[in-house]
Write a structure and sequence with these properties.
The complex is a heterodimer of chains A (155) and B (147).
Chain A lengths: L14 H4 L1 H15 L4 H14 L3 H13 L4 H6 L12 H14 L8 H10 L2 H23 L8
Chain B lengths: L6 H4 L1 H15 L4 H15 L2 H13 L4 H6 L12 H14 L8 H10 L2 H23 L8
Helix pairs in contact in B: 2-8, 3-4, 3-6, 3-8, 6-7, 6-8
Classes of the chains: A mainly alpha (155), B mainly alpha (147).
Chain lengths: 155, 147
Amino acid sequence: MTTTLDNLPATRLKIYKTSPELYDAMMTLSNAAAKDIEPELGELIKIRASQINHCAFCLDMHTRDARKHGVSDQKLDVLAAWEEAGDLFTERERAALALTEAVTELGNGHVSDEVYARAAAVFTERELGQVIAMAVTINAWNRINVTIRLEPPRR
Amino acid sequence: MSGRINLNRVSPEVYEAVVTLNAAASKDLDPELAELIKIRASQMNHCAFCLDMHSADARKRGISEQKLTLLPAWEEAEGIFTEKEQAALALTEEMTDLTRRHVSDEVYARAAAAFSERELGQVIAMALTINAWNRIGVTTRLPLPKR
């Protein structure tokens, strides 16, 4: 996140002003989660979680970021149905997306052994930790921005 | 044994950052209210490790067995939870359930009426922080201590 969130129009609480330590802690977490993970994969994780959590601001930001990182329009268009898209996504991407969906949908189930094992088979332990960290972190951003109803900038 | 990774070992900066986030969210927030937020989110997210830890913490802080027992049905438990607790629990539930719906104007307004802006920010911070811990706990299948 490179945007300065404290200047954006939240229609509810300006949480980045009322809880500045939260903002600092979230930026630290975001930076920690972004290490040792390909930016394209990071963006796919962020966009898929933001779709499931219905975060408009996050979708707007990360779809643009993904394009800047060279993620194709076709991948972005089909991301919500990645399981039906054959080999458009690599096995690492698919394993990370399956894990992200499970991590995001805890209310509907657990993180199954099958989904976990698929990810553990294609990532090193360090990479797997960072994929999980990225999924956890975007879920946290989603919760903030949905709750304060941060609006996407008009383009 | 879970056979899953230990996030603290493979991604120590991430783990440290969540500890820092937790400390930030805990400021200016009533510890009893914080435990209720943490337990309710952990119930919805099915985090066994988190439920075990925070139920024990809640008892240490003097939260009654009745409150802990009734927490998943707090809306039906008239007279047991304060308005601040109810407002925070309603907000926590909607923030935890983002896949099904948004955070409604009604629930947001109830919390905004019960809390100062600073308090409200910290309630939101605590709800998203326990959601982060829940995701780590469930995904890495943190082992339960035997009691």
